[in-house]
Amino acid sequence: MSRTSLRLASVLSMTGLALTALVTVGGFAEAQNPAETTVPRSVMSEAMRVCAGYIGAEVPEDLQIVGSEKEAYVREFSQGDLVYINRGRDANLQTGAEYQIIRNIGPVRDLQDRQRVLGTLVQELGVLRITEVRDTSSTGEITLICTGTVNLGDVLIPYERRPIPKVRTYRPLSVVGAPTGRATGQILASQMSREQLVRNDVVYVNIGADNGIKVGDYLTVYRPLASDPVSRFRDDRVGQRRSNGFPSDRFRTRDNSSIASSNKGYPQVAERTPRSELPRTLVGEIIIIRTEANTAVGVLTRTTREAVIGDRVELQ
Fold first, then answer.
1. What angle do CA 299, 302, 306 make, to 5 degrees?
2. Widest CA span in the chain
3. Is residue 26 scored above 70 in pLDDT?
4. Which residue has the higher pLDDT, 39 or 23?
5. Confidence band (pLDDT; 50, 70, 90) for 165?
6. What is the torsion angle, in degrees rounded to the nearest 10, for the CA atoms of residue 53, residue 54, residue 58 and residue 60?
7. Which range among 38-47, 187-196, 228-237, 258-267 has the greatest average pLDDT?
């Protein structure tokens, strides 16, 4: 084989590898066979493992960031900054130990029963490593930062690396689906207070370990038929109806079809066939990455449309 042929074969081989990588990005295999299932992938990155947050018990604020070498001119700290901690050898802190930086945000109430408090929203801000320990204080370096900044008063807890579940192989998601009869709930909130949610967004749901939910479980996100979040306003139908013919003002005909016309439509049909008896709309899927007693944290692995706060979820 000539040198030109060898070079061409090499280029084609590299192109094929690149195309293979492209079609499997994000776990959605779009190979020649459309029925082919996807390859499992990690559901979250290392940063997401640290920064997802959760709804649970309020964290005691015994161990806190109380100062910084830069506090004379900076009150918000980021990756690489040195900060001072209010405990030292008196609390058995050790050089090299890692702590997660968190912040208690406030109580979260159930969407259906506003009197029911599900827990405190705990925001996870980053990771800190102890660099020096004294009798009653310590110094730490912020080694990883999430979205936002670290402030004086933020709390430290021992850092534990949570397991990262794998996304299962799957086939295309249907837009309708029958109930499973298992635990159901709702999307309570999302990271960064987003209301329109898409793939890879972190969400919090109001069912947890007490409902049989565990890490790695899948939830179906769905809506009852005709319950899509569409805003309707009083003046939506202010405009006059269009007329293509010569209607009579006296007999109020329209296109000479008054005898055949009817005002019946959605209300009458919906009354005869309740929407609850028809297939619900599937919005997407969530994989659970952390559970508390009555709440859980999940990641949207795929969607058929934008999910929203309040969408219903069901254990698969």
1. 90
2. 96
3. no
4. 39
5. confident
6. -40
7. 187-196
Is residue 205 a contact partner of residue 310, using CB atoms and an 8 Å limit? no
Which residue intervals of the chain bear CATH 2.40.10.170?
A: 173-230+271-316
Q: Which fold has domain 173-230+271-316?
A: Thrombin, subunit H (2.40.10)
Least confident of 177-186, 230-239, 267-276: 230-239
80: left (phi over 0), alpha (psi -120 to 50) or beta: left
Total number of residues shown for the chain: 316
Q: How far apart are CA 283 and CA 198, in angstroms?
A: 10
Contact 120, 108 (CB under 8 A): yes
**What whole-number distance in Å separates Cα of residue 241 and Cα of residue 232?**
19
Q: 311: which 2 tokens?
A: 């969408």
Q: Comparing C-alpha atoms, which of 178, 185, 224, 222 is closest to residue 206?
A: 185
Q: What are phi and psi of 30, to 5 degrees?
A: -120, 60
Q: What is the pLDDT of residue 8?
A: 38
What's the CATH architecture for 47-158? Beta Barrel (2.40)
Structure confidence at residue 75 (pLDDT): 84
Query: How do residues 110-119 score in pLDDT, each as one tens digit?
Result: 888 888 899 9
Whether 298 contacts 205, CB under 8 Å: yes
Domain(s) labelled CATH 2.40.10.410 in the chain stretch across 47-158
